[in-house]
């Protein structure tokens, strides 16, 4: 490779990094807000400061963290917390399936790292640009992806840590654990974006309410099964109507 | 249940398992490729599961029974504050407005119920 080739590759990389940073910037404000809210929610739901720090650094998944908080506070069994975390994270399985072609030429530990640091934001900003690309897995595409996920991680972690610090200053009488429930609602409400989805959520909610007396929070699993069945049923029923 | 929360192994066990959840969901296909097929039926089912789980966690918090198996409703400030928050969210589409407004409603209603 000649020096001029090398220079042009570096210039291209710089241009891609700049493009990625411009693309990611507005999303970082949302990331910051969520990180802050999640940080406060963790300490106000009964986690110790060190546990909250461990959770944000290790789990790095806001919706799964917020979901687990009421379960942990009520002493739900570990397998159920694990199952709920997996279910809430299922969307990432679909993201991973779609993103996998862009990283398949890399060694396993790099694929693992790219996967682990994939957020909703990275997926949503990446796919419209490169989803239809003729060649998948170019150096340029991965540079773009990396330039998005690094500031995303830094923003999330710093705002979460700030939230944990702020949360410890706020007295318990303010009942900020309810803010965690509100944050969970803010994740959930936009999901009701179609009639089958609404049917599914109503069915799941009703089941969860009726079954809340079941031991080990088994009502949660029952509600998920009922929700899936109701959603698929509503989808085909609405199709037939048309 | 304070007794379980005060146990380190429970808390850190939960955190480790949730970290594993993140890794499994986000990196499975990156690591193992498409050796596990993701059919249309599975994809459809997967679409409904997260919303169902989130709803199922929220509803019993807002509408708890007074005692397990009694099926008597407890209606307090949480339900009404949540309704205010939903209304605010539909109006503004702003998460911070929703959370702040919901908390203010929660405090005002709690004070009012206590005073009543």
Q: Low-confidence parts of chain B, pLDDT < 50 over ≥5 residues?
A: none
Cα gyration radius of chain B (Å): 20 Å
Overall pLDDT confidence of chain B: 85
Task: Report on the biggest sheet of chain B.
Answer: none
Number of helices of chain A: 11
Q: End-to-end distance of chain B, in Å?
A: 30 Å
Q: How would you classify the helix and strand content of chain B by structural class?
A: mainly alpha
Order of helices and strands of chain A: HHHHHHHHHHH
Based on Cα principal axes, name the global outline of chain B. Answer: elongated
Number of strands of chain A: 0
Distance between the termini of chain A: 61 Å
* Class by alpha and beta content of chain A: mainly alpha
Assembly type: heterodimer
Q: How helical, in percent, are the residues of chain A?
A: over 70%
SSE inventory with pairings:
The complex is a heterodimer of chains A (242) and B (116).
Chain A: H1 3-44, H2 49-59, H3 62-73, H4 78-88, H5 90-103, H6 108-116, H7 120-130, H8 139-169, H9 177-188, H10 195-210, H11 218-241
Helix pairs in contact in A: 1-3, 1-8, 1-9, 2-8, 3-4, 3-9, 7-8, 10-11
Chain B: H1 2-5, H2 8-32, H3 40-62, H4 77-92, H5 95-115
Helix pairs in contact in B: 4-5
Descriptive report:
The complex is a heterodimer of chains A (242) and B (116). With 242 residues, chain A is an all-alpha fold. Helices cover 80% and strands 0% of the residues of chain A. Chain A contains 11 helices and no strands. The termini of chain A are far apart. The mean pLDDT of chain A is 90. Chain B has 116 residues and is mainly alpha-helical. Helix content of chain B is 77%, strand content 0%. Chain B has 5 helices and no strands. Chain B has helices spanning 2-5, 8-32, 40-62, 77-92, 95-115. In chain B, helix 4 packs antiparallel against helix 5 (95-115). The two termini of chain B are 30 Å apart. The model of chain B has no long low-confidence stretch (mean pLDDT 85). At the A-B interface, helix 1, helix 2, helix 3, helix 4 and helix 5 of A face helix 1, helix 2, helix 3, helix 4 and helix 5 of B.
């Amino acid at each position: 490779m000649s020096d001029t080739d090398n220079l042009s590759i570096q210039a291209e990389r710089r241009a891609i990094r700049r493009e990625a940073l411009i693309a990611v910037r507005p999303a970082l404000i949302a990331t910051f807000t969520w990180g802050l809210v999640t940080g406060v929610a963790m300490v106000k739901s009964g986690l110790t400061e060190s546990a909250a720090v461990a959770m944000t650094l290790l789990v790095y998944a806001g919706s799964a963290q917020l979901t687990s908080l009421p379960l942990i506070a009520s002493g739900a069994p570990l397998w159920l917390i694990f199952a709920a975390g997996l279910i809430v994270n299922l969307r990432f399985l679909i993201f991973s399936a779609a993103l996998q072609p862009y990283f398949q030429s890399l060694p396993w530990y790099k694929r693992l790292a790219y996967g682990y640091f994939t957020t909703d934001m990275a997926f949503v900003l990446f796919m419209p640009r490169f989803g239809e690309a003729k060649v998948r897995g170019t150096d340029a595409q991965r540079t773009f992806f990396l330039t998005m996920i690094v500031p995303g991680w830094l923003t999330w972690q710093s705002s979460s840590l700030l939230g944990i610090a702020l949360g410890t200053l706020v007295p318990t009488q303010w009942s900020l654990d309810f803010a965690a429930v509100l944050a969970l609602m803010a994740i959930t409400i936009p999901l009701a974006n179609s009639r089958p989805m609404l049917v599914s959520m109503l069915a799941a909610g009703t089941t969860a309410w009726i079954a809340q007396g079941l031991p080990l929070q088994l009502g949660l699993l029952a509600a998920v099964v009922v929700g899936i069945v109701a959603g698929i049923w509503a989808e085909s029923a609405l199709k037939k109507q048309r | 249940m304070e007794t379980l929360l005060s146990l380190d192994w429970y808390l850190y066990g939960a955190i480790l398992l949730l970290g594993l959840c993140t890794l499994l969901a986000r990196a499975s296909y990156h690591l193992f490729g498409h050796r596990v097929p993701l059919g249309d039926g599975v994809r459809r089912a997967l679409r409904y599961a997260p919303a169902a789980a989130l709803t199922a966690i929220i509803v019993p918090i807002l509408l708890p029974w007074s005692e397990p198996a009694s099926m008597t409703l407890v209606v307090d400030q949480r339900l009404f504050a949540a309704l205010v928050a939903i209304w605010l969210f539909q109006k503004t589409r702003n998460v911070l407005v929703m959370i702040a407004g919901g908390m203010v409603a929660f405090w005002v209603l709690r004070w009012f119920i206590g005073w009543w």
